[in-house]
Amino acid sequence: MTIAMTTSPEALTACCTPTGEPAMSEETASSLAAQFKAIADPNRLRMVSIISSSENAEACVCDITEPLNLGQSTVSHHLKILVDAGVLTREKRGVWAYYSLVPGALDSLAGALTGRS
Amino acid sequence: MTIAMTTSPEALTACCTPTGEPAMSEETASSLAAQFKAIADPNRLRMVSIISSSENAEACVCDITEPLNLGQSTVSHHLKILVDAGVLTREKRGVWAYYSLVPGALDSLAGALTGRS
């Protein structure tokens, strides 16, 4: 009786059968990674959470500064990263800048994770 | 007739009404940020994509090394980051290490983005 050993030559090559599925393209991966990098920060995640749970899904800097107990320049710095990454939009009204979610941006990132994009 | 100016004292305070919603906790934000940081890299996103589209949603290092055209030590380095972050599990079988998705890990990250977690 022959017992197949996991270290037989067959076993050594068996795992390398191509799946036939192309890997995610470099362009898609770079673009997604840039957006994930923007939200991969505790303060920025909390900012997005505050904005998405606010009325009309928008908030001004002061709505965000207070609950996070951060200085306004720190908050503005983080918000700029989220705007540059296409996660938030910024609209100046009077003396205040209001931030809101880019429609579909978070759903699109979520879809990339679950394969439902 | 009085015209309300956007720079009136009322306008200056109007945006700062608390939403009543607590911000995401620091602990939750830190833990999520660590996982997002792990996937916020083009190569690691492509690795996760290869594994999730493979048969049985598992792949060995060589399944990943070839399509990405990366050295095995680079691939192993990236895979370790994903394992440490709780995104992948690693199982040694014979001479090969197989990597698979931690059940629910990506869905849970996606849910954090869409508020459906």
From TrEMBL, chains A, B:
Record keywords: DNA-binding, Transcription, Transcription regulation
InterPro entries: ArsR-like_HTH, HTH_ArsR_DNA-bd_dom, HTH_MetalResp_TranReg, WH-like_DNA-bd_sf, WH_DNA-bd_sf
Family annotation (Gene3D superfamilies): Winged helix-like DNA-binding domain superfamily/Winged helix DNA-binding domain
Ranges for domain HTH arsR-type: 24-117
Signal peptide range in chain numbering: none
Matching Pfam families: HTH_5
Descriptive protein name: ArsR/SmtB family transcription factor
Taxonomic source organism: Arthrobacter flavus
